[in-house]
Amino acid sequence: MALFVQKYGGTSVGTAECIEAVAEKVCGFRNKGHDVVVVVSAMSGETNRLIDLANSITEEPAPREMDVLVSTGEQVTIALLAMALQKRGCEARSYTGGQVSILTDSMHTKARIRKIDEQGMRDDLDAGRVIVVAGFQGVDENGNITTLGRGGSDTTAVALAAALKADECQIYTDVDGVYTTDPRVVDSARRLERITFEEMMEMASLGSKVLQIRAVEFAGKYNVPLRVLSSFQEGEGTLITLEENIAMEQPVVSGIAFNRDEAKVTISGVPDTPGSALRILKPVSDANIDVDMIVQNVGEDNRTAFTFTVHRNDFNRAKDVLQRVSDELGAREVSGDTKIAKVSIVGVGMRSHVGVATTMFEALSAEGINIQMISTSEIKISVVINEKYLELAVRALHSAFELEKPAVEETM
Ligand code: ADP
Ligand code: ASP
Ligand code: MG
């Protein structure tokens, strides 16, 4: 007998029929004697619909009210799933985030979980009930409803699994595991049996939305066994685990992530004096704009240029801030480009291999794709390219690193 925390994503609860199918699945686990805590997302498309509704009323909805609004999506699915379970004779109770005491900070729309009081859940489990919890939401210390950022139900599930010391946190979704890259973009993408927390964290932060980054972070920190599986077909899925648990020879590159959500801004003709980076980037960070990649070019005549990437939603604001800075510094020009994409190769195997960057650059150059920016860390290399070549780049890299071929099992 085990305790599983299972999360079912938007597509998995997208219709009444899907919710019934989830109930069947959960009953199956109960009938085998396992304890189950279920976390559900809103029905697919619902969160977007609610956000659009808000935007139809005001361009800048108050974050507190936004959270009151978008958290309703999950409240619908917990009630429906509890009903579907009860109909099958499976005792179940639904709870909102606040009701199961998921206490967060007060950063509306991107709150972080601070504390979970698991006693109430233990009592329900001891009484033989399935607990159905609304994902993505919590409350702050003043009782305000908060949400955890897009994709946040994954994090709810992992946090509950950590608090309850569950045997496994299972993320059921519309693909049957974590693939070498998004299987909707590359047909030959291959499901990975295992991936390390570290790699998964990079993949998530570099754009692979199969898991929310906070969920992976949390799972790594509390060593929660985490598995991604399909709601619609049987299978082992992908286990996210510690590096030492992977009995494979680590491939150089494990996966490819990409992101279309960024934009690039450049300020050129900046006087090349100590402190200029600070004078440019501080106002940007003061405006609460996150900067990703930064490149400073050596210019002529003691002038230099800075280029950096920001989220596309922040593009206009970032340009406005830079225009102000440019006037103050006497820089020459501010320009920008929203039609960019970031492609990254990720793998712990990169630590022990040289020449990975060369293979990457060769593959891109063979397709005539120009690299605009580069950034590297121990286990990843990211490049910014023109958005229109994104899919071509991902496919070219996937084949250059032979990701369609299964990894070699080590004979131990
Ligand atoms: P859910 O609604 O269940 O949370 P998401 O849409 O958030 O599902 O995540 C699943 C999707 O993630 C898949 O449909 C797939 O297109 C996408 N995805 C992106 N990168 C990967 C990857 N490397 N492996 C698997 N799926 C990926
Ligand atoms: N419903 C929320 C979203 O669409 C949270 C989630 O599904 O994980 O982002
Ligand atoms: Mg998701």
Automatic annotation (TrEMBL):
<feature type="binding site">
    <location>
        <begin position="7"/>
        <end position="10"/>
    </location>
    <ligand>
        <name>ATP</name>
    </ligand>
</feature>
<feature type="domain" description="ACT">
    <location>
        <begin position="345"/>
        <end position="412"/>
    </location>
</feature>
<keyword id="KW-0028">Amino-acid biosynthesis</keyword>
<feature type="binding site">
    <location>
        <position position="184"/>
    </location>
    <ligand>
        <name>ATP</name>
    </ligand>
</feature>
<keyword id="KW-0808">Transferase</keyword>
<dbReference type="GO" id="GO:0009088">
    <property type="term" value="P:threonine biosynthetic process"/>
</dbReference>
<comment type="similarity">
    <text>Belongs to the aspartokinase family.</text>
</comment>
<dbReference type="GO" id="GO:0009090">
    <property type="term" value="P:homoserine biosynthetic process"/>
</dbReference>
<dbReference type="InterPro" id="IPR001048">
    <property type="entry name" value="Asp/Glu/Uridylate_kinase"/>
</dbReference>
<keyword id="KW-0547">Nucleotide-binding</keyword>
<comment type="pathway">
    <text>Amino-acid biosynthesis; L-threonine biosynthesis; L-threonine from L-aspartate: step 1/5.</text>
</comment>
<protein>
    <recommendedName>
        <fullName>Aspartokinase</fullName>
        <ecNumber>2.7.2.4</ecNumber>
    </recommendedName>
</protein>
<dbReference type="GO" id="GO:0009089">
    <property type="term" value="P:lysine biosynthetic process via diaminopimelate"/>
</dbReference>
<feature type="binding site">
    <location>
        <position position="179"/>
    </location>
    <ligand>
        <name>ATP</name>
    </ligand>
</feature>
<dbReference type="GO" id="GO:0005524">
    <property type="term" value="F:ATP binding"/>
</dbReference>
<dbReference type="InterPro" id="IPR045865">
    <property type="entry name" value="ACT-like_dom_sf"/>
</dbReference>
<dbReference type="InterPro" id="IPR001341">
    <property type="entry name" value="Asp_kinase"/>
</dbReference>
<dbReference type="InterPro" id="IPR005260">
    <property type="entry name" value="Asp_kin_monofn"/>
</dbReference>
<feature type="binding site">
    <location>
        <position position="47"/>
    </location>
    <ligand>
        <name>substrate</name>
    </ligand>
</feature>
<feature type="domain" description="ACT">
    <location>
        <begin position="265"/>
        <end position="339"/>
    </location>
</feature>
<dbReference type="Pfam" id="PF01842">
    <property type="entry name" value="ACT"/>
</dbReference>
<dbReference type="GO" id="GO:0004072">
    <property type="term" value="F:aspartate kinase activity"/>
</dbReference>
<comment type="pathway">
    <text>Amino-acid biosynthesis; L-methionine biosynthesis via de novo pathway; L-homoserine from L-aspartate: step 1/3.</text>
</comment>
<dbReference type="InterPro" id="IPR002912">
    <property type="entry name" value="ACT_dom"/>
</dbReference>
<dbReference type="Pfam" id="PF00696">
    <property type="entry name" value="AA_kinase"/>
</dbReference>
<dbReference type="GO" id="GO:0005829">
    <property type="term" value="C:cytosol"/>
</dbReference>
<dbReference type="InterPro" id="IPR041740">
    <property type="entry name" value="AKii-LysC-BS"/>
</dbReference>
<dbReference type="InterPro" id="IPR018042">
    <property type="entry name" value="Aspartate_kinase_CS"/>
</dbReference>
<dbReference type="InterPro" id="IPR036393">
    <property type="entry name" value="AceGlu_kinase-like_sf"/>
</dbReference>
<keyword id="KW-0457">Lysine biosynthesis</keyword>
<feature type="binding site">
    <location>
        <begin position="209"/>
        <end position="210"/>
    </location>
    <ligand>
        <name>ATP</name>
    </ligand>
</feature>
<feature type="binding site">
    <location>
        <begin position="173"/>
        <end position="174"/>
    </location>
    <ligand>
        <name>ATP</name>
    </ligand>
</feature>
<keyword id="KW-0418">Kinase</keyword>
<dbReference type="InterPro" id="IPR054352">
    <property type="entry name" value="ACT_Aspartokinase"/>
</dbReference>
<dbReference type="Pfam" id="PF22468">
    <property type="entry name" value="ACT_9"/>
</dbReference>
<keyword id="KW-0067">ATP-binding</keyword>
<feature type="binding site">
    <location>
        <position position="74"/>
    </location>
    <ligand>
        <name>substrate</name>
    </ligand>
</feature>
